[in-house]
């Protein structure tokens, strides 16, 4: 890797047609928690990732696409999946994370989501 021993790089082959890129399917809720979809796609991804994470599994793939930084989680509202919303609300409460649900319907019109609109920098 060009990062030497500083960054661990794991190649993960994505299933065809399920999502545009990896960060739209599995995201960090905090330093020790991943959010991933239930079902085949989530199973495939998680078997290739390190096992030292807590994982919140939700049925709605789009709701997995979240941005969490500084104790705040920006979450996509309006997908219609109550089970996903309840699971993420619970996970945020348990981790003392401020869950903020956002209307992303305009982003969805162009197949966009929260991670498409964010770049996190450690400044």
List the helices and strands and how they pair.
Elements: E1 27-30, E2 33-37, H1 40-48, E3 54-58, E4 67-69, E5 72-77, H2 82-94, E6 98-103, H3 105-108
Parallel strand pairs: 2-3, 5-6
Antiparallel strand pairs: 1-2, 4-5
Active site: 21 (proton donor), 116 (nucleophile)
Family: Belongs to the DDAH family.
Keywords: Hydrolase
Throw out a few tags for this protein.
three-stranded mixed beta sheet, single chain, 3 helices, 123 residues, globular, 6 strands
In words, what does this structure look like?
It is a single chain. By secondary structure, the chain is α/β, with parallel strands linked by helices. It has one domain (22-113). Helix content is 21%, strand content 24%. It has three helices and six strands, in the order ββαβββαβα. The strands form two sheets. The protein has a three-stranded mixed beta sheet with strand order 1-2-3, with helices on both faces. It is globular. The mean pLDDT is 85.
């Amino acid at each position: 890797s060009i990062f030497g021993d500083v960054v661990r790089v794991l190649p993960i082959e994505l299933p065809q047609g399920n999502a545009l890129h990896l960060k739209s399917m599995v995201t960090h809720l905090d330093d020790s928690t991943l959010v991933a979809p239930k079902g085949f796609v989530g199973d495939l991804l998680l078997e290739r990732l390190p096992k030292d994470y807590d994982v919140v599994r939700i049925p709605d793939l789009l709701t997995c696409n979240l941005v969490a930084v500084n104790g705040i989680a920006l979450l996509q509202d309006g997908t219609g999946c109550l089970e996903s919303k309840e699971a993420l609300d619970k996970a945020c409460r348990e981790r003392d994370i401020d869950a903020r649900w956002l209307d992303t319907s305009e982003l969805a019109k162009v197949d966009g989501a929260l991670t498409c609109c964010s770049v996190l920098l450690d400044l």
